[in-house]
Design a protein that fits this description.
heterodimer, A: 318 residues, mainly alpha, B: globular
């Protein structure tokens, strides 16, 4: 297992290289968009004079590479800079929103992952039965619908018809845990429904694949109970692809929840990113982009490490 | 009349006075003002779901860009110097008296003496001068820098008096002090994010694009305003989220309910739609310096080619009035309401096209979804009307991003909109005078400029009326901007919210709903 350490180190090195490339791409991408922060803020009221004045104040009149290098220099010193549109420190704007996004993502993960694996196992157990077919069809339908539509459906049922939960999920500091849970139920449920099918069907497919192996047949012939066959003999060998799917969906939960945030008015990082791109607020976009990139890189690394650990063939390479 | 459709007239009857009953049938004349000036009640924690906030908002008045920041400042934490009412008249706010010296180049202003900021500091002339100067100066980035440019000098005349000397005469100058972008802030402010002001609500929490929270200022200098104990403004960009929040009582009022479902929303128990004729003009500027729009007959042909009534019905769902190609809504002083309304006229289109010699020209109308809801649909409908009338038209859908920098004020024919400014002079000077930066149609007529300047300096009411009529007639006949519709301001609130007749210049009672409205029980 001690080959894991150099692997992790090597991957971390690549991670930095990736982040650096991403930061350049984001900078170039935002620059390529028409207009800049000054024009975006002033909008219809932009005259040549006040755009020029605002640009000067925001230091946007300096050439691209100067701005990038100065941003990079600040970053290396731990300074994330200030938002171009309202002058607030980026760390202040992003910090609590990222926590909110993580809260939503992790609560959705905590619900959806065990549920998906369990349902996948059940489907594999009762393959092609009516239960399997119903579960497959309904989860596939949920994943085919756009997320906002699923959100609207849930709102119609649980907020308007039955008045069980609020449709506005504005988190405030100092809220009680029970209140937070009450607010999070519907956004969580929306996200769960959207990612469930992917993980569940992958679990099902992998388990079914493993179930057709000869050693499973041997276990059955020996008289091992069906559930023991699945849990102790099949599942451990199916873990690798399942972990990969779970991690991919985890990453999506952090990064792809903008729509859910907008519909439920949840103050997370996604909404901030959308607003910042439309105002060309480069410091905020860069930091958000890099945070998302780090999330993906970290989760990918975790997935690979877990895959290796769970597969004895990779654990002890000959 | 529409203001009172959803419950107020019934209330008048219940009050039982004949005067109120008669007054209820006269829309907003204020004849029996006391009879129907409903008695406001104090109290309650109000929640407002607002569309139009962004995480990039700031409390610096020079860079206000949307509704959220302007409303936080204008309606909650701070005050403008003068108040604009629903009829376009000015009332004292922080400034109590104002007068012009003969010639209308020098104006004298007196301030209120008993006003305090939320931190206890007394407001005086230094704060006023600082607040105005924040937008002045050669390299000023403020959105209203061009509006305050005519100010040559501001002189301090006493602890509560100041004098403004203008470059040239302007009879409507004081209107500038009612601007939502020029609130009074303490002298020397560098960090505007602290929300310091004199307003009815003290800032307790402000997160751009998320939430603005204020608690009632017990020291507020107005005794007859600011009735809620606390106000919470929550940004809700998604239409469905906003409407659902109002339906389920999670908020007490919202702005911009979806027009297509507004009628249904108003029919629901406990919800009222507030429909006010307003100043939201939808304009389609044709660049006069680009062929074929330099030809006045071609411009006339384009103006006759749109069916305005059909647009009001389909795009605005009836919540609006036809525009007459004049950028002045009917409630503004000196609006030329007597000019006959232009109608859809295929014959005149053909006549003017022939006269212009551009019969085969294909008109390309550039639009985008983000300009306003229904912008692209308007263009598609117009294409139908125009084609039937013999004018060839194409709709070019532009990207949402960068519309205001790449399309507006650049392409030959595009879509735009304006919340009409409070005076005719302001509207014309901002958008129709040669060299004005917001002159979206590049309208350059020296005789027109001269007339505008003459009207601006004229203090005699009758003479001004004649001059402004002349100017509006010119725009109606020869102008380079098609203005087919003027939209009503439509807001929605729970039945528990009470209000006096509502202003229509901007949404939510001129952005001052937080201090003008109250809970009925």
């Amino acid at each position: 297992m001690d080959f894991l350490i150099p692997l992790i180190l090597k991957r971390t090195g690549f991670a930095f290289l990736t982040l650096f490339t991403i930061s350049i791409l984001i900078f170039v991408g935002v620059e390529a968009l028409p207009g800049d922060t000054a024009e975006a803020i002033l909008g219809q009221g932009a005259t040549k004079e006040n755009v020029a004045a605002l640009r000067k104040e925001l230091k946007l009149d300096m050439p691209v590479h100067t701005r990038y290098i100065s941003w990079l220099g600040d970053l290396c010193q731990g300074e994330l800079g200030n938002s171009l549109s309202n002058g607030r420190p980026v760390s202040e704007m992003i910090g609590w929103r990222f926590k909110n996004t993580l809260l939503l993502a992790s609560s959705a993960a905590v619900v959806s992952i065990p549920l998906a694996i369990l349902l996948g196992l059940i489907c594999a157990l009762y393959q092609n039965s009516w239960l399997d077919k119903i579960l497959s069809t309904s989860t596939l339908s949920a994943i085919s619908l756009p997320e906002f539509f699923v959100a609207y459906l849930l709102i119609v049922v649980f907020v308007v018809q039955f008045e069980l939960f609020p449709s506005v999920a504005v988190l405030k500091s100092g809220m009680a845990i029970s209140e937070i849970i009450n607010i999070l139920v519907l956004p969580c449920l929306t996200l769960t429904l959207v990612v469930l099918a992917h993980m569940m069907r992958m679990t099902r497919a992998t388990i079914i694949g493993v179930l057709s192996s000869p050693y499973i047949e041997m276990a059955r012939l020996k008289g091992v109970r069906k559930h023991k066959v699945i849990f102790y003999h099949a599942l451990p060998n199916a873990l690798s692809p399942i972990i990969n799917v779970v991690v991919m969906d985890l990453a999506w939960l952090v990064v792809g929840v903008v729509v859910v945030e907008v519909v439920f008015v949840y103050p997370g990082l996604g909404q901030l990113l959308v607003d910042s791109v439309s105002k060309r607020d480069i410091p905020v976009v860069q930091t958000s982009g890099l945070i998302f990139a780090c999330t993906y890189i970290f989760l990918n690394l975790t997935a690979d490490v877990l895959s290796i650990i769970s597969n004895p063939k990779l654990r002890h390479p000959k | 009349m529409d203001d009172y459709k959803n419950g107020v007239t019934r209330r008048q009857f219940m009050a039982g006075t004949i005067a109120a009953g008669v007054a209820a049938s006269i829309p907003g004349q204020g004849l029996f003002k006391n009879a129907w000036a409903l008695a406001p009640k104090k109290g309650g924690a109000m929640k407002l779901g607002l569309a139009g906030g962004s995480t990039t908002d700031s409390l610096d008045p020079a860079t206000f860009s949307g509704v959220f920041d302007q409303m936080s400042s204008m309606g909650l934490y701070r005050n403008p110097f003068l108040e604009l009412d629903r009829k376009g008249e000015l009332h004292p706010e922080l400034v109590t008296e104002w007068s012009a010296e003969p010639g209308a180049k020098v104006w004298n202003f007196k301030l209120r003496k008993d006003v305090e900021f939320h931190n206890g500091k007394a407001m005086d002339v230094d704060d006023a001068i600082f607040s105005i100067n924040h937008h002045r100066g050669k390299d000023n980035k403020s959105q209203i820098a061009s509006v305050v440019k005519p100010i040559k000098e501001i002189k301090k005349m006493g602890k509560y008096e100041f004098k403004i000397i203008l470059e040239e005469a302007s009879a409507d100058f004081p209107y500038i002090l009612s601007s939502t972008r020029m609130p009074c802030v303490p002298n020397g402010t560098t960090n505007f994010q602290d929300g310091m002001g004199t307003g009815g609500y003290i800032m307790k929490d402000w997160e751009p694009g998320v939430r603005a929270y204020g608690e009632r200022n017990p020291n507020y200098f107005k005794e007859d305003k600011a009735f809620f104990d606390s106000v919470e403004i929550i940004t809700m960009t998604d239409d469905t989220a906003r409407t659902t929040a109002l339906k389920t009582g999670q908020v007490d009022m919202i702005n911009r309910p979806d027009r297509k479902t507004a009628r249904l929303l108003g029919k629901m128990k406990g919800i009222q739609i507030i429909n006010t004729p307003g100043g939201l003009t939808y304009t389609f500027p044709m660049r006069m310096d680009q062929k074929p729009y330099d030809n006045v007959d071609f411009r006339r042909a384009v103006k006759y080619s749109v069916d305005r009534e059909a647009l009001i019905k389909t795009i605005l769902q009836g919540y609006g009035v036809p525009g007459n190609d004049i950028p002045v809504p009917s409630y503004v002083k000196y609006a030329a309401n007597s000019i006959p309304q232009r109608q859809y006229d295929p014959d005149k289109v053909k006549f003017h096209l022939k006269k212009s010699g551009y019969q085969d020209e294909v008109v390309r109308l550039h639009v985008a979804d983000m300009v306003y809801t229904g912008c692209v649909d308007t263009a598609q409908l117009w294409k139908e009307h125009a084609t039937k009338a013999g004018l060839k038209m194409d709709v070019v859908k532009e990207a949402n991003d960068g519309y205001w920098s790449k399309v507006w004020n650049k392409k030959p024919f595009c879509a735009s909109f304006w919340y009409a400014r409070p005076t005719v002079d302001w509207i014309l000077s901002m958008t129709y005078v040669s060299g004005a930066s917001a002159n979206e149609s590049n309208w350059k007529v020296p005789s027109f400029d001269k007339l505008v300047k003459e009207a601006r300096a004229e203090l005699n009411d009758e003479k001004r009326k004649v001059l402004y009529f002349e100017l509006q007639k010119i725009l109606h006949e020869d102008g380079s901007v098609v203005i087919p519709m003027i939209a009503n301001i439509v807001d929605a609130a729970s039945d528990k919210i009470g209000f006096n007749p509502v202003a229509g210049n901007v949404e939510l009672d001129g952005l001052r709903a937080c201090e003008r409205w109250w809970f009925k029980s």
